[in-house]
Amino acid sequence: MVKKLSDLYMEGRKAFSQREDLQTAGLLSRNLLCHITGKTKEQLIADGQMYAGDQVCAEMEQAVERVLSGEPLAYVLGQWDFYGLTLTVTKDVLIPRDDTCAVTDLAIKQALFLESSPRILDLCTGSGCIGIAVASRVKDARVTCADISKEAIAVAKKNITAHKLTGRVSCVQADALGMPAPFLGKFDMIVSNPPYITAQEMTELDDSVKNYEPHLALYGGTDGLDFYRSIAKNYKAALKPGGYLCFEFGMGQGDDVCRIMEENGYTILERSRDYSNIERAVIGRYDRKED
Ligand code: GLN
User: Are 75 and 155 within 8 A, CB to CB?
Assistant: First the structure.
């Protein structure tokens, strides 16, 4: 049978309604079909009586199947919005979370007061979401997006290019658990949302996270704090005197992260919360007390 776009929409909605309420099922189906056909939702409604080609039918069937099997929508769409920016995401990077707006806000607020053309390092950049959001708001910032994963760097590069930021944002491979390479130079600010899931929590993750998101981006060592210890200590070498360090952290890790920063010579300036009112981010200044 030759199908119309509206038939595909209804079939998708019916399939999703086994698991979701009808409204959510409809939204999911429309979202997928818009993505596959490249149409806006208004165009899709207007073109509902158009015949869908074989390829669109096959792609829609496949996409519905993937979502039904538990794969996150962001990976099925291959993109996700963060801080008003549409970003490419693949299974090699964490899906940008709204939680991450907290650390991004702290970094942007401070960066706007830095000397002109500040150098900012986004360490463990993944999709590049934080670094790209900072560069898009702080118009003279020069941002370096660093990650240990070559695959993640490829995704970040794609996003930097898509947002026309190649003039001010670059990518480099770096290990946040080691020392910064001297060629990186000195930064006015380091911002990082590093892996922070504990060994225990890794066993309790939701299936959609455990089965699809990269464990490399999630696991932060037995107590989840390995990256904070390393970055606060080792990456001082990459900070200018009086430079800033901004971290996102997991629920309940705020006191430990602040302690690690203080032990390493940082003065805590502000701790902030995400949209769910969970404490989520901190900014500190490194005053070089010990050298
Ligand atoms: N910085 C990226 C993000 O916030 C990746 C974080 C990570 O890989 N732990 O999504």
Answer: no
Residue with tokens 């010990």: 290
Residues 64 and 119 in one domain: no
pLDDT digits (tens, 9 = 90+) for 13-63: 999 999 999 999 999 999 999 999 999 999 999 999 999 999 999 999 999
Q: What is the distance, to the nearest Å, from the Cα of residue 221 to the centroid of all Cα atoms in its chain? A: 20
- Which domain does 123 fall in, by range? 79-286
pLDDT at 289: 53
**How many independent structural domains does the chain possess?**
2
Compute CA distances 263 → 13, 34, 87, 238, 250, whole Å.
54, 51, 36, 18, 20
Take residue 113 and report the two structure tokens written for it.
């007061």
- For ligand 1, say whether the CB of 96 is within 6 Å of any of its atoms: yes
Residues 112 and 59 in one domain: no
Ligand 1 pocket mutation, candidates 81, 85, 92, 130, criterion most atoms within 8 A of CB: 130
Length, in residues, of the chain? 291
Query: Residue whose CA is closest, atom 1 of ligand 1?
Result: 125
**Cβ 52 vs Cβ 98: under 8 Å:** no
Sign (positive/negative) of CA torsion 101, 107, 113, 117?
negative
